[in-house]
């Protein structure tokens, strides 16, 4: 966020406002995200700013109730997909790896949903340290 | 058995700084746009239409509908009116306002055998169901017999 605060302040604020409303009002409706940004079935998607849609924030969306936010970057004009941009590729691939790991650990029971189904609990680790 | 742990709360001075810069009005504008998008999509789903079918009804491309549902669209009144018309709802319903539908307006005339006043009593009644499915039953205020309507 530090790197985009200066150059894309309004875009970052747009995404923050969207995330705030998702958390407080609307829930994580699929229409608010760009779907299928990752591998088939891994729930990786992206949030974007308005109106020019310069930024992408990659995330994992678990239905309407939970979103795991990852990193992102600028989607410059002429960049058709994240695979065409080094920075976006790094962030998207990292989120795809996290999704793979998290989904496996959910299957294994290492991670599980809280009773109200809104929080991940269990053997949590800090993925930033990897 | 793993010891249950909860995620730590994320705290960032930059995030707090940016949140502080967002005015309540800006936040409300985002909220209205996102709720409106959700409402239109819900009405479309209730009709059993997909995006392509809805696009056809309103004469747009499906990509335009995707944009509408993204929660970022700044709709004009004309477009909203067109959408409401296609969905068969009143415009305020898109904003989550209850749809009040007049189902009858009954005029009751009470006549006495003796030469006593005839009372005209009008009871406009309405029955509505709001967009969230709550049943509402409302009786409008003008339900009392008025002395000026008495007839000899």
Shape of chain B: elongated
Number of strands of chain A: 5
The order of strands across the largest sheet of chain B is: 2-3-4
SS content category of chain A: alpha+beta
Mean pLDDT of chain A equals 87
Main sheet properties of chain B: 3 strands, antiparallel
Mean pLDDT of chain B: 77
- Strand content of chain A is 15-25%
Instruction: Order the strands across the largest sheet of chain A as they lie in space.
Output: 1-2-3
User: Uncertain segments of chain B of ≥5 residues (pLDDT<50)?
Assistant: 128-152
Q: Give the proportion of residues in helices of chain B.
A: 40-55%
Can you characterise this structure?
The complex is a heterodimer of chains A (130) and B (152). Chain A has one domain (2-122). Chain A is 35% helix and 22% strand. Chain A is built from 3 helices and 5 strands. Chain A has helices spanning 2-5, 9-26, 86-108, and strands at 44-48, 55-62, 66-74, 111-113, 120-122. The two termini of chain A are 19 Å apart. Chain A has 130 residues and is of the alpha+beta class. Chain B has helices spanning 13-21, 24-47, 51-58, 62-69, 77-87, 91-94; strands spanning 5-6, 99-110, 119-129, 135-139. In chain B, strands 2-3-4 form a 3-stranded antiparallel β-sheet, with no helix packed on it. The radius of gyration of chain B is 26 Å and the shape is elongated. Classes of the chains: A alpha+beta (130), B alpha+beta (152). Chains A and B meet through helix 2 and strand 5 of A and strand 1, helix 1 and helix 2 of B.
